[in-house]
Backbone:
């Protein structure tokens, strides 16, 4: 029961992240700059959802198991999703820096 609930919650988050990523890549394929502020906001949302999902998933799992079993259950594992979230956060910083460079270049010319 607990695994089913966690799987459903993670699937909902995954679908949201995939839709945002699809929108990001769709806009890039239509010649929208990846350094556009709207594109950077999409990447930020994806990065934060992945990071928060990595942090909240073990906590929700522990709460669900504890409430269903009647005993205190402590489980915390950051794992692979946390690393992906950190990488995406760094990528957001790189894209933001690229947007700043693009803006200064456009103002110079």
Residues:
């Amino acid at each position: 029961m607990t695994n089913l609930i966690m799987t459903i919650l993670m699937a909902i988050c995954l679908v949201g992240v995939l839709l945002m990523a699809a929108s990001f890549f769709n806009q890039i394929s239509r010649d929208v700059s990846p350094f556009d502020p709207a594109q950077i906001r999409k990447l930020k949302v994806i990065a934060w959802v992945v990071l928060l999902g990595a942090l909240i998933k073990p906590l929700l799992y522990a709460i669900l198991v504890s409430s269903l079993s009647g005993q205190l259950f402590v489980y915390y594992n950051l794992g692979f999703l946390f690393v992906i979230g950190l990488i995406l956060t760094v990528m957001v910083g790189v894209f933001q820096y690229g947007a700043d460079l693009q803006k200064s270049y456009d103002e110079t010319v």
